[in-house]
Structure formats: C-alpha cells, structure tokens
C-alpha cells in the first residue's frame, strides 16, 4: 500500500514577500526584503543568532505583522486569509509544540483535527515513518527530546498542505533522523511543494529549487 503522503495531490503554492521590513524592540532586523517563491522551491534562511530568521518565518506564516511591506499567499494578502491558511500552510516551530500528557497518537490526532482530521491508521503510518513504532500510545513527556521532535515532524508524513514553514526542524534529531528528514523535504519540493526553513545545519540533500537567504549578509 502506498503511504498517505504519496496520495496527496499538491496544488502549487506561491508565497511572495514585498518590500518586507521587520523591527523588534525598536531594532530594525531587515527591510526591503523581496521574495517570490513557488512550488518546487526550498528556501533556507540562515544567519547568526538574533539576525531575524525566526521573525522572518513568523511574518511569512502570518504569525506576526511586518513593520512595512506585505506577504502574499497565492496572490492575496496573507493577513486576509487566516481562516484558510491551514489548508495551504503547515507551521512547525522551534519548540516541538506537543502536549506531554497526550500520547503521540493523540497529539497528532488533535493537531490534524484543527484543519483536516486524520485516520488512526494514517497516524500510525506517519509515526512508523519517523521511527516511533512501539511509542504510539505512551505519554509524550516520557519520550526523549529527539523522539518528541519526531512526533512533531510526523505531521509532514500525513496529508500535509503544500507549504511547509519549519523553524530549526533538525533540532535534537540523530544522524539518521537528519538524513531522513532532508530526503523527505527534498522529495516534497520535487513533488511541487514549497519548504521554507531556518537551520544552522548544512544540508547535504538539496532539491533543484534550493535557495539560501543569509540574513547576516543583508544590511538592515
Ligand atoms: N518576542 C519578542 N519580543 C521582542 N523582541 C524579540 C522577540 N523575539 C525575538 N526578539 C528579538 O528579535 C531579534 C531577532 O530574533 P529572532 O528570534 O528572529 O532571531 P534568529 O535569527 O531566529 O535567532 P536564533 O538563531 O538565535 O534562533 C533578536 O534581537 C531578539 O531579541
């Protein structure tokens, strides 16, 4: 049987940043930032600590308003699409973002239910894909940091939307986990998905649409 993520038809997303500026605590992090990303692209946002990588991701994911400029998703301002964002965009933040008292299966069930409920079988397949077979029904606070990160990343193996915004997705993963995630992200892009992520990790597997944006080299 094919895994569920192979059954998901991707509608190619387009994300644009138009003359984006970001100021935090009266400190200008960047300004005049333009991006035009379509399905197939992988944008790696790099730069030193505090250069504004997470802030940029939050702007692109609609979690924060820019100081100037705007973000367009499929041609329309992101700010006006909050109700529909979950169908297009999957956000996985710096923290694993899972509930310790819930099991891995329960965490994924409620996270998916926010936008599109997932069948129990699909959730177990996703957990198996991230190496958590046998840990489906234990409370997540009993899992290691890397295993908790894997629970969060299992969402990328469910019927995920086409645009993935991931803040430091490789944190706490072992070598095998890093290699597997790299391959999965590259495959998502080759299938028409769009990945935007921050990482200090140097990628060994890059899709043809790979782009790097180094915020440390931009003058604010
Ligand atoms: N909630 C906040 N309120 C005010 N300022 C903030 C907040 N979060 C971050 N900042 C400031 O914004 C700047 C950029 O932070 P950001 O987290 O975007 O950087 P980063 O490049 O992702 O850093 P790191 O590599 O350490 O994760 C920092 O100077 C930080 O102090």
Secondary structure blueprint with pairings:
Elements: E1 14-24, E2 27-38, E3 41-46, H1 53-60, E4 68-73, E5 76-77, H2 85-88, E6 89-92, H3 104-113, H4 120-129, H5 145-153, E7 163-167, H6 175-190, E8 194-198, E9 209-214
Parallel strand pairs: 3-8, 3-9, 6-7, 7-8
Antiparallel strand pairs: 1-2, 1-4, 4-5
Characteristic key phrases:
single chain, 220 residues, alpha/beta, Rossmann fold, five-stranded parallel β-sheet, four-stranded antiparallel β-sheet, 6 helices, 9 strands, 26% strand, binds adenosine-5'-triphosphate
Could you walk me through the main structural features you see in this protein, from its secondary elements to its overall organization?
With 220 residues, the chain is an alpha/beta fold. It has a single domain (14-217), classed as 3-Layer(aba) Sandwich (Rossmann fold), CATH 3.40.50. The protein is built from 6 helices and 9 strands. It has helices at residues 53-60, 85-88, 104-113, 120-129, 145-153, 175-190; strands at residues 14-24, 27-38, 41-46, 68-73, 76-77, 89-92, 163-167, 194-198, 209-214. The strands form 2 sheets. A 5-stranded parallel β-sheet has the order 6-7-8-3-9, with helices on both faces. Strands 2-1-4-5 form a 4-stranded antiparallel β-sheet, covered by helices on one side. The longest helix has 16 residues, at 175-190. The protein is globular, with a radius of gyration of 17 Å. Adenosine-5'-triphosphate binds next to strand 2 and helix 1. Adenosine-5'-triphosphate binds at residues 24-25, 27, 29, 47, 49-55. Keywords: ATP-binding, Cytochrome c-type biogenesis, Membrane, Nucleotide-binding, Translocase, Transport.
